[in-house]
Amino acid sequence: MRRRVRTILLLTLKDLRRRLADRLALALNLAIPLAIAGTMALVFGSRPGEEPQAPKLRLVVADLDGTPATGIITGASQNQEAAKHLDVSVAATREEGLSHMRDEHFAALVVIPKGFSDAMLSGRQATFEVVKNPAESVMPLVAEQGAGIAALYLSTGRRLLGDDSKTLAAMLQGDDWQDSAAIAALATTMYARVHGAGNWLFPPIIGVKTEQKAAGGTNGFNFIAWMYPGLIVMGLLYVALMQMRDLLRERRSGTLRRQLVAPVSVAEVLLSKLLAVAAVVAVSMVLLLAAGALAFHIDWGAPLPLLATAAAIVFTTTGFAALLYSLVTTERQGEAFGGILVMVMSLLGGSFVPPQVLPGWLQSISRFTVSHWAHDALRWIVAGGGWSDIAQDLLVLAVLGATFIGIGWAGLSRRYARGAL
Amino acid sequence: MGIHELRLAMRDPGSIFWILVAPFLWVFFFGFINRPDDPTQVRIGLGVVNEDGSAVAARLVSHLRWEKFELVVAESAGDLPAGERAPSRTLTIPKGFHEALERHEKIDVILHEGENANPDATFAVQLALHRAIVRLLADESFGPSRPEDDLVRVTSSYAGRRAIPSGNAQTVPGNLVMFVLLVALSSGSAHIAHERKSRILSRLAASPLSRTELILGKLAGRVVTSVVQVTLFVLLGLTLFHMDWGSSPLGLALVLTSLVACAAALSLLGGALFASPDAAAGVGVTLSLVMSALGGCWWPAEVMPPWIRTAGHVFPTAWAMDGLHQIVSWGGGLRDVLIPSAALLAMALAAGAVAVRRLRFD
Q1: Of B114, B209, B173, B202, which Cα lies nearest the Cα of B326?
Q2: What CATH homologous superfamily does B44-149 map to?
Q3: Can you tell me the distance from the alpha carbon of A2 to that of A165, in angstroms, rounded to the nearest whole number?
Q4: B161 contacts A31? CB cut-off 8 A
Q5: Which of A315, A421, B50, B236 could crosslink A415 through cysteines, CB 3.0-4.6 Å?
Q6: ipTM > 0.90?
Q7: A248 neighbors B147 (Cβ within 8 angstroms)
Q8: Residues of B in contact with A208 (CB under 8 A)
Q9: Which residues of A257-271 are buried (b: 16+ CB within 10 A; e: fewer)?
């Protein structure tokens, strides 16, 4: 028994040394998840403790009314707080605004028509227009929603003014600015109203506190910390497949068959191959985890749950690769079907989008993928989850891994024994 | 040579998948994800736990009914449906809600987002909640009113010609650009590197073909593959995804031809620079994914910081997306795509020139 273990370890170590010598191939496999995560960090990322930077809403405003009331809208970005979220540019006409939006990539054009303030203050319906940029998807909808809320506030403000709005309208038109008694009376009434309702409404006295239960989704949601575990699993699946492909390369060169001339059994050689693949996957996992911590500031939580999760993922990805290469007969087939399966599993398993945005039937299919359970475990780890949170994931990964290894082992050893490997 | 190259590619199941299947799988998947035209227009399930039970809390619930919610109201969390029928989000109006309002003290209602909640829908819920709260507070101050009584309204429309950018139509142009570059830079470059490594190119050089003819032939191979991809995208976009490709076929053809030229030249460059097919494919995949992300193929460009949006124009992806947006989104014509197409052709010329200088047959 001791001799067999020694033989297997010796074979594994020698094989591992050979595999790790091809650093370029390994680096290229790890480069894909790192490049995707790096790009996402560049676009969406923020350092720990920093508030995530939401993209600024870029608006063009064409104020055709040109009254002090509408001037508040055009000058919105001069407010320090609003300037963090808004970038407002002014256009003299609707056409100028449209051309500005098209050429300089603004999200929307807000057109305040002539007579807007007058209509609003005299109690008539007042409408302003939002023209969305058709080449953009998200920010124009944000502009539309924001405009809806602004309209609600304006309607509420109009109710706050009550009958005094007509006096204010006359003043804004320059008729009553000389009547100091009227101005004082208006100011007093308005102060009383604003003091009463303003305490409730500006800002609203009722707040909304959002509490999230999703794995990896605490109140301080970190997009990269959510995304990166999915990319790790995808990268490891590719590494496992690339390493297992070596079996078919050796078949082509006849080295595996020649090895059987030595005093080693089929089981010993095959086991050493699987262990070498698992070792390369484990090294890759350590490198990807370290890159996540150093480059993207991801906190991998308690070491023991992380270790158990990493071991389960290495076991299952190695098993997946063994199963696939027990079924295909050529390297080309292995590359093609391996690539397809990893892509489909990554899409369904949540590497790119949260599985919860998928329809129910796709979510059910997702649960049959390695990616789903591996992501879930890693995302719980990142979210600070403990053993109870990852227990089910680890169990499913272990069962999947054992099944894959079992079937893969049976197929590979049969082929190896009859000289077809 | 171009057609022979395509025939060779079509013998490889991997190439067939990445040229013919994967792009459309990708479009279907992300199109399906983006399917609702506007998450704010969808009715969203919301459980409401009214722990306060006061009249003002009931008025907040009735304001919520005016928003696009499917409401399930209960007095405690235990009374809400459980299991698969459990709402993805629950709003709790806490005990002491009305007392806090009477005392003019700030009070929070709590929105619990479940594990399976869609984040887009949660954003829509937050907006709708904000509107309901403002209406409630205005009513408490000035007396009851209805949304149709609002004095100020907003009309909203899209400039240009497109109705609403969503679903498959939104994902087709980005995926077209990404997959043309992905296939050209990965399997296209790897194929040339393989032919160099296995000395097929040096054997071809012994034939009566000149060096220029050989290089042009290899380039034609890449062009034919990319043309097949682009044609499939345009045709399936029209038939399967109901894509509106704009009103300028000439403008669209100019952008797509420039993209194909650029992809073919970059493919040749990859094959000329890397000695190993694996290295050529690995670098090609990584580079095309990064270029696609930074060029606006993966997400709307407006979510990127302005400097990345500008810097992204060192890549062909950003120019190709600019050109496609001019045609598809704005309904532009030939004149509107001259600059993006010129940029793509300039990149093609530069990459082609370096590739021709660096390509060794032995």
Answers
A1: B173
A2: abc type-2 transporter like domain (3.40.1710.10)
A3: 95
A4: no
A5: A421
A6: no
A7: no
A8: 108-111, 126, 129-130, 133
A9: eebeeeebebebbbb
Kindly list the averaged pLDDT for each block of 10 residues, start to end, along chain B of length 362.
79 78 81 59 78 90 82 83 77 91 88 72 80 87 81 86 57 92 91 88 84 88 93 90 88 97 95 89 91 88 84 95 90 93 97 91 72
Q: Which residues of A touch B139 (CB under 8 A)?
A: none
Note whether A14 and A131 are same-domain residues.
Answer: no
**Contacting B residues, span 288-327, partner chain A, CB-CB under 8 Å:** 289-290, 293-294, 299-305, 308-309, 325-326
In a domain, A82, yes or no: yes
Same domain as A173, residue A31: no
Report the residue from B106, B150, B293 with minimal CB separation from A39.
B293
Q: With contacts defined as CB-CB under 8 Å, which chain A residues touch B137?
A: 197, 200-201, 204-206
pLDDT along chain A (421 residues), means of 10: 86 87 78 84 65 74 81 66 78 92 89 88 87 83 84 82 69 62 68 65 81 52 79 91 88 82 86 93 93 88 94 96 92 84 87 76 87 92 89 96 95 85 74
Neighbours of A14 (CB within 10 A): 12
Cβ within 8 Å, pair B151-A155: yes
Name the DSSP letter for residue B2. Answer: H
Same domain, A267 and A168: no
Q: Using only C-alpha atoms, what is the Rg of chain B? A: 28
How is A254-289 classified by DSSP, letter by letter? THHHHHTTSS--HHHHHHHHHHHHHHHHHHHHHHHH
- Return the beta strands (E) in chain B as ranges: 44-50, 69-74, 89-93, 107-113, 152-158
Its domain, for residue A118, covers 57-201
B169: CB partners within 8 A, 6+ apart: B31, B237, B241, B242, B243, B244
Q: Which tokens belong to A180?
A: 């100091």
